[in-house]
Structure prediction request, 291 residues.
Amino acid sequence: MEHPDSPASAAGSAHPPAARPSAPGDAREPQRRGFTSTRFVLVEPSHPGNVGAAARALKTMGFSRLVLVAPRVPQVHCDPEAVAMASGADDVLAAAHIVPTLADALAGAQWSLALTARTREYGPPPAAPRHAVLDACRQVGHGGDIALVFGNERTGLSNDDVERCTALAHIPANPAYSSLNLAQAVQVLAYELRLAYLDGGASGAAHPAAPAPAANASTPLATSDDIERMYVHLENALIALDFLDPANPKKLMSRLRRLFARSGLEREEVNIVRGIAKHILMLKGKNGANR
Prediction:
């Protein structure tokens, strides 16, 4: 996030409870599962009170998975200010999963949304939360985890953090005073996501404003960690081809990340790209062909 009061970025907890089983063919099942498969991730939160207030925001909207990346106060879920601001959401706060890096927070997630207040030169184009959460609903239909990622109160998300996420959102606040508190930003996204899940579940049909999914719901999508390994493999192959100069990489990998993020990569597609990279490295006699 940009400041204790600023439009942030988003995601949630690492090992989700199993979703409540539904009757076969129940069209509401993906949306019900969404409440347990959605992580809200706070990256390097500075203020314990904001963490507690974020836990409260999640519980009021029916979510419970909170992931904290390297919080300034290591045991922030036990901090008196955080507990006070949680105000009845002590269970969500106590169950918060604390991890050292964003990569750890996104492990196993198939789709992630970064919330940011700043314009980025690279990365996916930002969408308003109401439109961005429609993608979340579609991804939930694939059966995997999704994550909403929020940045630090003062500095927001780094460019590297944004590039690691699949999609980007921006809260269209008053341009004359757009300073949103971290917990307020979490509340806005949790509210919009709750409405989208409930609306999709009640109608049993795709949201009319949502474009057709890029892949069949039965096709396994690649997880964040699978995609990150693909990028490492591909970068090594491009270096071996002398197509990418590691001393002067420019924005090549950033552009490739943006290209792949638009495609909604399936697991088999990631394997194809890694297979190509592996053979390039083998032909060039480079180490790392089997990474």
